[in-house]
Amino acid sequence: MSLLSIGKSGLLAAQVGLATTGNNITNAGVPGYSRQVAIQVDTPTQDKGFGFVGTGTEVAAVRRYYDNFLATQLRNAESNQASLDVYSKQISQIDNLLADPTAGLSPAMQDFFNGVQDATSNPASAASRQAMLSSAESLAARFQGMSARLSEIASGVNGQIVSNVGEINSFARQIAELNNTIAGLSTDGKAPNDLLDHRDALLTELNKLVKTTVIAGDNNSLTVQMGTGQPLVVGNKAFTLGTSTSPTDVSRVTVGYLADTGGFSPLPDRVLTGGQLGGLLEFRNGAMDRAQNSLGQVAAAIAVTFNAQHELGQDQNGALGTAFFGPINAYVGTNANNLASSTADVTAVVKDASALTASDYSVDFDGTSFSVKRLSDGQVTQINPFPQTEPQVIDGVAYTITGTPAANDNFLVRPTYNAAKDFDVLVEDRTKIALAAPISTTAPTTNAGNAKITAGTVDANYLTPGNALTAPVTLTFDKASGSLSGFPAGQDVTVTVNGTATVYPAGTASIPYTDGAAISFGGINLAISGTPADLDKFTVGPNTSGVGDSRNGALLAALQTKNTMDNGNANFQTTYAQMVNYVGNKAREAQIGGAAADAAVAQATNAQQSVSGVNLDEEAANLLRYQQAYQASGKVMQVASQLFDTLLSLGN
What we know:
Blueprint: H1 3-26, E1 36-42, E2 46-47, E3 52-53, E4 57-64, H2 68-99, H3 105-121, H4 126-185, H5 193-209, E5 212-216, E6 222-226, E7 230-234, E8 237-238, E9 241-246, E10 249-258, E11 264-266, H6 275-310, E12 331-334, E13 345-350, E14 361-365, E15 370-374, E16 380-382, E17 392-394, E18 397-402, E19 410-414, H7 419-422, E20 439-442, E21 452-453, E22 457-458, E23 473-478, E24 483-485, E25 493-497, E26 500-504, E27 510-512, E28 518-521, E29 524-529, E30 537-542, H8 551-558, H9 572-612, H10 616-651
Antiparallel strand pairs: 1-4, 2-3, 5-6, 6-7, 7-8, 9-10, 10-11, 12-19, 13-18, 14-15, 14-19, 15-16, 17-18, 20-30, 21-29, 22-29, 23-24, 23-30, 24-27, 25-26, 25-28, 28-29
Helix pairs in contact: 1-10, 2-4, 2-5, 2-6, 2-9, 3-4, 3-8, 4-5, 4-6, 5-6, 6-9
């Protein structure tokens, strides 16, 4: 090959080097751009007899600097960062709502029980009774307001999930199209570098929405899987995601595949991890659900326990108390996939606050029997018998199942989900606040002994038909036998001494007397202490002058600090404090995790950029080097031209 051709090849190679370096410099600030370099090789030499002589150079390829391991590491770090970021933003809303010292629940509960205590101190005061009703209404409004705010947050999460799914589909389609284009252009070992960078940039943005796994294929094609291995892009085909309402909860959005025919196949939330979508689902299924259920648990506990005690009291009209707050009915979602032939219906009502949990439950029919599964830990309880003869209470909730079920029927039961929203005050007339006790006891002054009888209380058995007193019961002490007589003939009598209870069947004529023993019959509880004289009498009767009585009011006020929740281990305030503490800890964890994720992204970015990033100082040096090579190759061509001219002149 002539010297002119050699110079020309060097000139062309230097020109490609200059173009590549110039392209690096101008794209240095473009996100996702990978540094490129011109790979220059020598052309085949020629045998001249005395040896081999070079023929010049050529550019074998323009290669981008790219490390798949570092790129994957960065994508994973950014996916985790996006997940923690969206989780932190969402949970901070709940944290601010629950912990607010003025708008939170704690001040409203304190004000309500302050109102109960004030009314108890002044049971005949109309103003105190009205103030108690007002504080109850304020408490109900606070529960309802907080529930509405949590519902707004949940609705916002649904909207973001739908938006994220749309963006994921868009990126998946673009990646599939690029797969097709890149595969067509990737021939003879050559690769369209800019298209590869563009696809990597799309993968980066996709990973911020949901964590993906990328598998390399032929001709630079990629297979993209999301979450725990669900396909999203295979070659030039993109799978389409969609959203639909949950089959058991219309207020909840689920994610799944959309078929070409329009069908929808839901995916379990647990398989969609990482990225904004994973963070939203983790927040919704964790902190969001727990906050809603725990808030409802407190609301349900207050309503159920306060109602139970209020119904054991007596109002200013002399009537037994009624329910102060509305009933707490559990949310029951019938699975939309249940067979049309099924007529089964499930209702659930909160009955026992102490056994109530913040968990959701799945009610399932296997073709023979129903079972109730606690979703927090998987514990299963059978409905027995079925068909039922009466409601079955499980974890403080009474389940009633009617109709004819079909195999695989499924129902979602959320006992406390709507409790805060449905928390309502039923008593509107202040005179119907039952602050008095329905019974009164007396020991006549004519008694010769020094024995005394307590004021007496009643329990839930007093509300059993036939147990409520309509006339006084007089108990008479017989010194000869050391016993009491006069108990209602149709009721058992229980005497408890030092924790040991003895039950005397209904109709027992006389009951042995023990100083200070607790005596119970027909839901009435009292004690007589001291030394009674022969024929001393003790009367238990209806409370006929209870306007100034506040014995039941004191019991209502005591509920504030009484351990009525978590099987007798927590009260309203401590349970709410536990929820606030849980959300606060989760919010703090998200903040700490977010800071760590930011550091991980910065570190992974530095590592990736050390390979793929453009260094302007280095490119400036390359620019000078290629410029000099270009000038030198031009000089070679100039010398070749002069030599050629010299040869021509010799011929003349």
